[in-house]
Amino acid sequence: MPRKIEKAACDLLTTICGPTQKTPAWLMRPGRAECGKHWPLVQQIYHTLSGLELPETMPPREWRKVDGVFQSPHGDTFIFELDEKQHFNAFRAATLRLYPTSIRLGFSVNEWLDRCHQKTKLERGGFGKPKPPLFPGENGRHRQRAFRDALADLLPSEHGFVPTLRLSDIEVEAWVFSEGARNRMAKLIEERMAPE
Question: What are the residue ranges spanned by the domains of the chain?
Fold first, then answer.
């Protein structure tokens, strides 16, 4: 079901904003240069999650894609991410607590923190396996996911994007397949992605 929700949300965004673009190169393997002024914060987040020092260049194995990259009706480019239950946990809460209050986001930090605090058990199996080289230990995938989510929140402003439109599965599952879904998504984009 989570993949169906993600696809439905992406399909709605495509009808409103046009086809998705590729994940930008600066987010696939961001290092010091791609992080810009956020580099010290990114280092702090990584150290909080791993206890290790972040290399200035991302290792070749450490790359990622996002759920979508779209143009808003205002012509601004934004990243889209749909967060399922595995995105909410103590590791993600730790990253969110480090965000400066001045950063503009396309979601409510308090709502994300509330959902993170409701989680009592981490998903097991592949959801938490070690992910070397950056996250080699226990719960490596959970830590990696929290780190990547933070990068997708913090870096867009460094590269001329508006904030990432981050939606949760439970936020959209009640309406994403309904007749009024397109209007509901368009309203969300307007509320969260409108230029300052």
Answer: 2-193
Region class of 105: left (phi > 0), else alpha (psi between -120 and 50), else beta:
beta
> pLDDT tens track of the chain, all 196 residues?
668 999 999 999 999 999 999 999 999 999 999 999 999 999 999 999 999 999 999 998 888 999 999 999 889 999 999 999 999 999 999 999 999 999 999 999 999 999 999 998 999 888 889 999 999 999 999 999 999 999 999 999 999 999 999 999 999 999 999 999 999 999 999 888 766 6
